[in-house]
Specification:
Blueprint: E1 9-11, E2 14-16, E3 22-26, E4 33-38, H1 42-59, H2 64-80, H3 82-93, H4 97-118, E5 124-132, E6 141-151, E7 154-158, H5 166-177, E8 181-185, H6 192-204, E9 211-213, H7 219-227, E10 233-237, H8 240-253, E11 256-260, E12 266-269, H9 275-287, E13 299-303, H10 304-319, H11 339-355, E14 358-361, E15 378-381, H12 388-391, E16 398-404, H13 407-415, E17 419-420, E18 422-426, H14 430-437, E19 444-447, E20 461-462, E21 465-466, H15 472-477, E22 479-487
Helix pairs in contact: 1-7, 2-4, 2-6, 3-4, 4-5, 9-10
Length: 488
């Protein structure tokens, strides 16, 4: 561990010693200390919100071109330091080298570039003129109107541990592009990457107070960042349970909310599907972030005609998924984020057995890995819709398979969930696939793919969230609509 990784809080453009000292950030692959993260006091979190509020008056009036230039320069600086940033991200998260480089750091950079362009998108929408007769509201006349997107104000961004670059970038960059200021509260497990992002923004010329970063191992830090009276909006990615608590607090003072919460993605695989493509898609559950991803197709609904064959192909796929040191070439599945989370996943594997599901493969601690928080990818077959392993988000490398008979039953099973983030349909009949997609209660549906279009709106139905972001939808999420009316 080096001095560089003994971090300080970033408040009002200054690097500040934390009132609560520091806590250790642990490498999930080695159980060694990556660095020391600062433990903010409540007073320091409130000070960060106050600094953001002070900075808002000027930043919100900054020319879009200037905001775009700062975001672009920040992206350049992140790209300049992509090597060490990748090493840090991998050490904090346990991600494989390819994932840390390509899915974490590179996506974070691309999001800053996207919202540098986004800062220049038009914010006005002309509305049709209206002819008003004379009356209590005034003289007769033709009234013009325009709807204008304005910044919300101070935004608290509470980010997830599974991607400490892409997730914060997807909040901070569009919020800043729209003229908001931010208080960022990263996940306690891997906050060091977010401080690297803050340094890039500072070097790029972000004025003091526009970006503030506060961290802590205690939930009190996040609570203060939500409750601070200067905060106008909370953008949160994490569990549904925590999102519900945040929503209750926001509701008292009517703070705006953007919530990306849990998921239990249904993957409907019909008899006529390309099974190899379906298996490749479902297999991303195991590979990306060791299953710690809310968009994963963890709940497979297989039509009976291909049920046995699909189980066989998924079992074969698992045999080729090397579990081990994420820094080693050829590793596909690294560790999960912490010992506590590994224990949680293992408890679900044991629960699945007790519920009567058939554990086809995996679920154990892999041999030859005495250190690190590893769980072998698990596949359960012969599951039923009432099992907890089918209904609850495990957030790990565990896939459950439920059989169904016909289209109606498949749709009913898919919608029989508290969640509705991303679902998937595999079928050789494209018309059927789109017909089924239209009946799924989910914020997004992948048809014969787990790929994403990064301009498409992202968010969930039901307990998977509130609001939409990604692409221009993120700019809308971090803005208020103001109507301006004038007489012609």
């Amino acid at each position: 561990m080096t001095e560089r990784l003994t971090e300080r809080l970033f408040i009002g453009g200054e690097w500040v010693e934390p009132d609560g000292g520091h806590y250790e950030v642990i490498n999930p692959a080695t159980e060694e200390t990556v660095g020391l993260a600062p433990e903010a006091s409540r007073a320091q979190v409130l000070a960060a919100a106050s600094c953001a509020a002070d900075a808002f008056a000027t930043w919100s009036r900054t020319a879009p071109e200037e905001r775009a230039a700062i975001l672009d320069r920040a992206a350049d600086l992140m790209a300049r330091d992509a090597g060490p940033n990748t090493v840090l991200a991998q050490a904090e998260t346990g991600a494989t080298t390819g994932t840390a480089r390509g899915m974490q750091v590179a996506v974070g950079i691309s999001r800053f570039r996207r919202y540098a362009r986004g800062a220049l998108e038009p914010v006005e929408q002309a509305l049709p003129p209206q002819i008003n007769e004379a009356g209590p509201m005034g003289r007769a006349g033709v009234f013009g109107a325009v709807a204008v997107r304005r910044p919300v104000g101070v935004v608290t961004c509470i980010t997830s541990y599974n991607n400490p670059w892409a997730n914060p970038a997807g909040k901070v960059a569009p919020a800043l592009a729209m003229g908001n200021t931010v208080v960022v509260k990263p996940a306690p497990q891997d906050p060091l990457s977010v401080y690297a992002m803050a340094r890039a923004l500072q070097e790029a010329g972000a004025p003091p107070g526009v970006v503030n970063v506060v961290t802590g191992s205690s939930p009190a830090v996040g609570a203060a960042a939500v409750e601070a009276p200067e905060v106008d909006m909370v953008s949160f990615t994490g569990s549904t349970a925590v999102g519900q608590r945040i929503g209750e607090v926001c509701g008292r003072t009517l703070k705006r909310q953007l919530m990306e919460l849990g998921g239990k993605g249904a993957a409907l695989v019909f008899d006529d599907a390309d099974l190899d493509a379906a298996v490749m898609g479902i297999g991303t559950t195991f590979a990306f972030y060791s299953g710690q991803i809310c968009t994963a197709p963890t709940r497979v609904l297989a039509q009976r005609g291909i049920y046995g064959q699909l189980i066989e192909k998924l079992t074969g796929y698992l045999a080729y998924m090397k579990v081990g040191d994420p820094a080693e070439p050829g590793t596909v599945v690294g560790p999960v984020i912490s010992a506590a989370h590994r224990d949680r996943i293992e408890s679900y594997v044991e629960l699945g057995r007790k519920e009567g599901a058939r554990l086809v493969a995996g679920g154990e601690r892999p041999a030859g890995l005495p250190r690190g928080f590893y769980v072998a990818p698990a596949l359960f077959a012969d599951c039923t819709a009432d099992m907890r392993i089918v209904r609850e988000e495990i957030f790990g490398p565990v896939v459950v398979v439920v059989p169904f008979d016909d289209e109606e039953e498949g749709i009913a099973l898919a919608n029989d969930s508290d969640y509705g983030l991303l679902d998937y349909v595999w079928s050789g009949d494209v018309a059927r696939a789109f017909r089924v997609a239209g009946r799924l209660r989910a914020g997004g549906v992948g048809v014969n793919t787990v790929g994403r279009n990064m301009e498409a709106p992202f968010g969930g139905f039901k307990k998977s969230g509130v609001g939409r972001d990604v692409g221009s939808y993120a700019l809308h999420a971090y803005s208020e609509i103001q109507a301006v009316v004038w007489p012609g």
